[in-house]
Amino acid sequence: MSYDEITPGTPALSNDPAWPRTGGWGAVPDGESPIDLAILGIPTSRNSLSPSNAHETPAAVREALRRYSSHVVTPGAPGRRRGKQEIVLDEALTIVDAGDAVDPDSETGEAAAQALVASLSARAQLVVAVGGDNSLTVPAALGVFGDNIETAGLITLDAHHDLRDGRSNGSPVRRLIEAGLNPRRIVQIGIADFANSAEYRKRARDYGITVIHRDELHSRSMHDVIDEALHIAGSGDGPLHVDLDVDVCDRSVAPGCPASIPGGLQAYELRLAARLLATDPRVRGIDIAEVDATADTEDQRTVRLAALCVLEAAAGLAKRLGH
Ligand SMILES: N=CN[C@@H](CCC(=O)O)C(=O)O
């Protein structure tokens, strides 16, 4: 679908040279020149517990990115007006699009996706992997951790523990622990009632995972929550990976996620979390999971939120790099 098809009646807007659009980033250049931000698609969907066409989402997110400008006013310290800076992401950062991993639902495809993330991570300050169902978190995180899994940490924004048995979108956190990730450096933000079970809650407790329940987020600022998460996940001084499962959001803003429920985070809360996390230099990878573009029938609002999370990650990275 072209940009003009999804915005009928606004051809002038799409052609305004004074309002350049983001996205459309080039492929990874040959050689070893450094990259600031690398994005790729990891289109997992076949092992999803709920039937999902999440494999169609990376392409939809790329299309949605074309709606937005990369103009950002980066905030100063919380509550302070000083320190604000105005930047254009596409000018401040070297951003590349590495395309999509092939058949990441299969074991060999998952290993190849992990290798692709690892190669990007060796060159880029931050890798953003667009899913795909939540099983993409395994190759995305393992690729980012590389040989440093023993010191690594994981932060999830997710309504679910993802500690199920087997291989699905409900098991990536357990699989990462079994691969060697220390569960005491896992922080799960936004775990929701009526979306998990006593058994999986017990697993989280037994592992020593830090759980910040959805209801806690009503009385704490996102800045405070993210600070705590970074402190715990980063305690090994190793690389951090962030899983943004969009089903942590309220169903009204994330209808394209099979498992989003009423009462979740607002869109701005997920966006703020993405930006704050990307600002920290220990965060080397972020994935965006569980959006099924074909179920996003309202007005593409879930795909648009996923695209904005990519841009928030870029804005956080720009701040990290001093822009
Ligand atoms: N990350 C998502 N986990 C959910 C998936 C549910 C679904 O696909 O319906 C879970 O384990 O319950």
UniProtKB/TrEMBL annotation:
<feature type="region of interest" description="Disordered">
    <location>
        <begin position="1"/>
        <end position="27"/>
    </location>
</feature>
<keyword id="KW-0369">Histidine metabolism</keyword>
<dbReference type="GO" id="GO:0050415">
    <property type="term" value="F:formimidoylglutamase activity"/>
</dbReference>
<keyword id="KW-0378">Hydrolase</keyword>
<dbReference type="GO" id="GO:0033389">
    <property type="term" value="P:putrescine biosynthetic process from arginine, via agmatine"/>
</dbReference>
<keyword id="KW-0479">Metal-binding</keyword>
<comment type="similarity">
    <text>Belongs to the arginase family.</text>
</comment>
<dbReference type="Pfam" id="PF00491">
    <property type="entry name" value="Arginase"/>
</dbReference>
<dbReference type="GO" id="GO:0046872">
    <property type="term" value="F:metal ion binding"/>
</dbReference>
<dbReference type="GO" id="GO:0006547">
    <property type="term" value="P:L-histidine metabolic process"/>
</dbReference>
<dbReference type="InterPro" id="IPR006035">
    <property type="entry name" value="Ureohydrolase"/>
</dbReference>
<dbReference type="InterPro" id="IPR023696">
    <property type="entry name" value="Ureohydrolase_dom_sf"/>
</dbReference>
<dbReference type="GO" id="GO:0008783">
    <property type="term" value="F:agmatinase activity"/>
</dbReference>
<protein>
    <submittedName>
        <fullName>Formiminoglutamase</fullName>
        <ecNumber>3.5.3.8</ecNumber>
    </submittedName>
</protein>
<keyword id="KW-0464">Manganese</keyword>
